[in-house]
Structure formats: C-alpha cells, structure tokens
Request: fold
Amino acid sequence: MSTSLVFLIVVAIGVVGYFLGRQRALSKDSGSVKLHSLPHYHGWWVFLASALPAILFLAVWAAATSLYLERTAISELPARTADTVIASQSLELGMVSGIARGLNKLSSEEKANLPQTFAELRPLLSAKGVALAQDGQDYMIPIAVEWNKNSVRANTIGGVIALALAVAGAIFGLSGVHVRARARNNVERIILGALLAASTIAILTTVGIILSMLFQTMTFFQSVSPAGFFFGTVWDPRFAAAGAEGSQGQFGLIPLLGGTIYIAFVAMLFAVPVGLFSAIYMAEYASPRVRSVVKPLLEVLAGIPTIVYGFFALVTVGPFLRDLSAALSGGYAFIQAQSVLTAGIVMGVMLIPFVSSLSDDIITAVPGSLRDGSLGLGSTRSETIRRVVLPAALPGIVGALLLTASRAIGETMIVVLAAGVAANININPFDAMTTITVKIVNQLTGDLEFNSPQTLVAFALGLTLFFITLAMNIFALYIVRKYREQYE
Amino acid sequence: MNLMTERNLEKAVNDKMNAQPNAIKMQGKEVTVHYGDKQALFGVSLDVPEKMVTALIGPSGCGKSTFLRSLNRMNDTIEGCKIGGKITLDDEDIYNPKIDVVELRARVGMVFQKPNPFPKSIFENVAYGPRIHGLAKNRQQLDEIVEKSLRRASLFDEVKDRLHEAGTGLSGGQQQRLCIARAIAVSPEVILMDEPCSALDPIATAKVEELIDELRQNYTIVIVTHSMQQAARVSQRTAMFHLGNLVEVGDTEMMFTNPTEKRTQDYITGRFG
Reply:
C-alpha cells in the first residue's frame, strides 16, 4: 500500500465525512432551536477531524520510516576497514537504496531468481531504465532486498494506522454534530493554527540558516583566529594542494568590508538623489495620468534580474567609462573597466526604484492637511515640500534609505561582474576593489570540499554579512515604526 | 427665535446700531465651480464686508466650503477643478493670471476643519509664515511676532513656558488656536475658517468663538459652520447655501429672526439639512 494511495483514501474519507456531517447537521435543524453553526461548518469540522490527524501522522511516519530503513541498512553493512572500496558510508547507503528502488521495478518472477552478483544485476536493472553506479558490491543485494521488505512492512503498518485514524476522526466529528455544537469556532481555531504554522516555518527556516552558517563558521575559526579574520588587513587565501602544510593563507576581512562599504556608498550617492527627487516629483507634482505611467515604468527597473545589470556594467558602462577616461587624459585610461565607480553606478541604477518607491509611499503618507496648512499660509510648493513635508517624512525616508543600503551591501551579481576580484584597500574609486559577496562566490566556485579554511571562510563571510544587514534592517524597521506612530 | 440668547440678541442690536456701512473687502460675482464633470457652484454672487464675520451656512454638500476655498484659490490644489465668474479682493480680480497665488494666500489666510499643526515646535509653527515671507528682520522681531500672534489667539498664557515643545502635543482646542495664531502671524487681511470648531469639544469651541469675536476688530473673517447657534453667536452677516446656490444673504439678526426664504427658515429651524 503506497503512501500516496493512503493519502488519497484519507482525503476521500474526509470528503465523505464532510457530506455526512453537513447532512447530519441539516437533519438536526428542527426549526425550534437555531443551529449554532451553518451546516457546511459542521461538514468542514468532520472533514478536518478525520483528514488532518491522519495526514499529519502519515508525514511523521514517512520521516520515521526512512530513518528506520537507513539505520537497519547501516547495521547490516559490513564493518568498514582500510580496504573498503567505497569511499564513505553515506555513499554505500546511497547505492543500497538505489538498488532497492531498482528491485521494485522487477517482475515477481525476476525477483524469485534474483542474480547473486552485482555484475549480473546491473544489466538487468539498466534494461528496466535504472542506472546504477559501476562499483556496487555483491553484499549490497541482500541488504537491498531486506530494505524493500522493511519498507513494505512499515508502509502497511503506517497506512493501516492512518486509515484507522481517519475513520475514528470522522466518527468523532460526526458524533459531535448537534444543534448547539460550535463547529464554526472549531474551524476558526484550526485556520488560526494553519496560519500560525506557516509563519513558524518562515521563522524556523531563518533560524536554520543561521545555525548552519554558525557551525561551519565555528569550524573555520578552529583553524583561523577570529582576531586575524575580523581585523586582518590582508586577504590572501592560498589554495594549497591537499595535505600541504604551512601555507595557511591570510583571511583579513577589512579589505573586503572596505570594498563592500565603498561600493555601496558610491551606489547610494548615485541612487539617493535620483530616487528621492523622482519620488518627490511623483508624490507632489505629477498629475495622476503621468504618475500612472511613470511609476510602473520605474518599478520595472526593480524587476530586472541583477545579473542583467551585471552584464550592462561589464559590456557597456565599464568600457564606456574606461574609454571616456582615456579620451579625457589623452591616452591613459585612469578608470579601469572593472572599478568601484562602474559597480557603484550600475548598482545605483538598480537601487533607484527601491529608493523612489519606498520614499514615494512615505511622502504620500504625510497627511494632506499639512500641505493645505502650509499652502494656505502662502508658501510655494517647493517651500511646503522642503519645510513641512520632508521634515515630517524624514524618519521614514531614513528608514527606507537604510533598507536600501542593506540591499546594496548584500548585492552580489553586479559586483561579481563589475567590481573586480582584487582585494585592495584604497580610496581611488577608479580602481578595482572587491566585496564580501564576490569573495563568497570565489571561494565556493569549483570542485571543493567543505573542510579547508579556504572554503569555510565563505561561511564566516556570509555570517558577517548577514549580521551587518540584519542590524541595518532592524534599525531601519525601528525607525519606520517610530515614524508610523506619529500619524496613525 | 429661541436659537438666539438674549445676550446675543442685545449684542446684535447694538452692532446694528453702531454699524457703519462697512466697505466691501471681497466680492464674488456669478462664481461657478466644477470638479471634473460635476458642478458644485451655480453662479454665486456674494459680498464680504470688511472687518465683519460672515458666516456661510447650509446642509452638507451645498457648496459653502467650495466657495470659501475659492476665495484664496485653495481649490487650485484639487485636480480637475475649474472656476468661472469673478472674485475680487479690494476690487482686484484674484483669478487674473497676473496675480501671484502665493501672495494672495498670504493676504487671505485659512484655518482648516481639523487642527493641522506642523510636526514642529509651537514657536516654529507660528514662525513658519513670517520666516517664509521674510516678515522679521532678526530673531527679536520674530519673537515679537510669535508672541503677539499667540496673544491674539489667546494661547500665549497657556503655552508660554513650552514654546519649544511639539505643537502636536497640545489639546485639540489649543491646536486649533495655534493654527489661528499661525494664520494671524503673516498679518492677513482676510481669514477664512472652514468649520474651525467641528473637531472640538464645547469648552474649546466657546474659546475659539470668543477669539473670532475679538479678531473681527482687525480682520475680515469668513466662516463656514454647521452649527446654527455658532453662526448666530459669532457672525454679523449670514449667507445660506443650498445645492450649490446662494439662497439668501443678509444681516445675521435678520436671517435668524425673519428670513425671507422658506428654505432658510426650514433649515435654521432644523426641518431639513
């Protein structure tokens, strides 16, 4: 009995329960006493009471089953010695489950006289469309057979329990149907639970991400001192040959952090005035017709994938700036094609819609009565904006700018293509610098194992970046919230 | 007419007896206003005499606020608003393209329905207009203007110790008097008030009304109000609007005791509106 079939039957029981419950509620409606809940609420309550526990049980059972199967298989595998052919136990386990899956496709006749060696089994399975790795071992076959037996047994037990749960739930739900039963409130509670579960998943995922980075980072800090990482000014992670001693490399965060902040700063320098002015134009001056055309157009900019901005920087803006500088100086290109300026400008373009859209909302939220008050005193529009609207909107705008800045700091694709990879500390915006995100990409690109500081450093960098942007977001949200209290 | 207290009646009679024929400060001739396709005013002609309080009354949606807002061209800020006819201030057409709207609004100030102090200090709220128009040459003069305006708005004694605290922290009635002080600070000739007491409690309302009565010594005031009693208490002339038309205009005393139009009588006695 497969899990999906059990699932369908459980749902079918629930649906039948729905109709029975509704029917029962209708029959209880004598007319003298009003039903507490509408009949369909009784139906839904029966449905949920029968299907929900059974489905939850199936999910838990499936997880437990796969854990149980692996444990059993591991205990049956021969003890690992120095001359075990397969590199790791997890690889062995993977092969066993692969064979087990393949065996399920064989007919019962073929199963009866199963070949005893892997060399014979492999062509048989590949004829059925199951591709297996070459170095499978003979001893895996009985384990795979055992695996399948256990699997079938576990599924049967689980399926029976689930169906029993579904039937019991339906009976429980149906027995509860009477005139004053509060089916409506029960359904409400379950909806609340579902919504709560959804948001819990989002939060737990965040926690999971942090934890996974945290553990890798701790491994990294076992080989590199935190002081050397956070305060080091040299970034030189030598990719040493495996096993080579003495060439640790240096993992100084400062040049990367410097580049990140510098590029983000140039980007903000470009995006803030343009974005803010266009927001003011749209919120205060544009007629509804202009606004309805310009605003979506501006927001299209936000929908362009950042890798496309990266191309734009790489093939258009970078060469243009380089040629321009060459023309200006008469031959010597003092702006490199990959430079802080290139990355900053293109990132700035990317940020414009964020700045303008967020600021536009905030400026529009300033009550119109303040504008009227100022205009009624005989001030011009720009005086009103400068002296009343912007001061009132300032906290919100600062919050919006912080949110935008944290985006700039976390931005990856543009800087990978446009900023360069040289980890320099300098203040010349025409030179290449690199960022934290670029180095994360560099350290993780290629065929690597996560056991050397050269790769683990990526997690330390990621965690640092995460905390920087998290701090900025929290601060921004704090400011935005404080601002909202003023008017709502 | 039980709407008027004896004291008010007496005062109105005195006003009448002492009244010089006041000069016309503002004049509307056949004023029409369209909001998009919808017409809100159908040819209203109304004189606003100098240094008097003129009350505009009538049921909701009758066009009285629209007329008020066209007196200092605040309707210009509303999308799709078109104005016809002629409105003059001291015999000067305020819809003449050569007129500077900003200057006009400095001469014809406005107080709004809901108190709308800027999110600044009390001092800065009042100093806002004088700063913009450069009315004070130095800090001392600015201080004087602010104090004088606050005194005229009978607010100074209540706030003199906390001039640099937020204007939004005052009570509703104080906020409205702050807005009046803010309007006075630019020395307007006319002050327009759009239901200035509708968001206030009775005690705050009484204070604002008292203030309006004092202000007419120096300013020409036009007030829109929903309250008959308020119109009777504070105004010398009353104009009754209905469905975008001016029904009747006359001395307040006469309007409340002996209206010529039946619609006015019905409205002030509460039979409709």
Chain B has eleven helices and ten strands. The longest helix of chain B spans residues 139-152. The first strand of chain B starts at residue 24 and ends at 35.
